[in-house]
Amino acid sequence: MKVLKHIKKYVEGELFNYPIYKEALLQIKENTFLQQSANNLVPATKDKVPHPFLDRSTIRMEASISAIEDVLSILPEKYRRLIELRYFRSYKVEQVVDELDICVRNFFNYRDEAISFFAVRFGLI
Questions:
Q1: Which domains does the chain have, with CATH numbers?
Q2: Could you read off the pLDDT of 73-124 as tens digits, one per residue?
Q3: What CA–CA distance (Å, rounded) separates 74 from 72?
Q4: Element (DSSP H or E) covering residue 31
Q5: Residues near 72 by beta carbon (within 8 Å), at least 6 away in sequence
Q6: Which contacts qualify for 110-116: CB closer than 8 Å, 24 or more apart?
Q7: What is the reported pLDDT for 55?
Q8: What is the band of 33 on the pLDDT scale with cuts at 50, 70, 90?
Q9: Quick one: CA torsion of 6, 116, 12, 81, rounded to 10 degrees?
Q10: How far apart are CA 80 and CA 69, in angstroms?
Q11: Distance CA 71, CA 117 (A)
């Protein structure tokens, strides 16, 4: 399936940001837990305190993480490994090609096929 260039760029941006989103969400959860522990809220008042995970950016990060993890769970191994190296570890194309022992043409073919899975899951196509 051919993915439009702007959709491909968006998906690649989300993939590059995935490790950052995971770390940020972990920090938010840890900070919230520490704040709630420090406040020693009684159960009756806990329900009335605004939930910190309801702001737009946090909801967006959670949705992106969930979508990426859903697709990673069904991707063939060769695509999953390529995504991990290129986007999560920020390897250059040449490094990915060497690591996976594939040609550059296959790199771009695999990448485009994998990105189409993500674009469908993100609801972009």
A1: 5-121 (1.20.140)
A2: 999 999 999 999 999 999 999 999 999 999 999 999 999 999 999 999 999 9
A3: 5
A4: helix 5-39
A5: 80, 83
A6: 110/78, 110/79, 110/82, 111/82, 111/86, 112/3, 112/8, 113/79, 114/75, 114/79, 114/80, 114/82, 114/83, 115/3, 115/8, 115/11, 115/12, 116/1, 116/3
A7: 81
A8: low
A9: -160
A10: 10
A11: 7
pTM of the model: 0.80
In the block, tokens 């090609």 appear at 97
Cβ atoms of 119 and 125 within 8 Å: the answer is yes
What does the block give as tokens for 125? 């196509």
What is the length of the chain?
Answer: 125
Question: If residue 70 lies in a helix (H) or strand (E), which one and from where to where?
Answer: helix 56-74
| Single-letter amino acid, residue 96 | V
Phi and psi torsions of 123, nearest 5°: 80, 25
Residue 73 is encoded by which pair of tokens?
């769970």
| AA letter at 72 | L
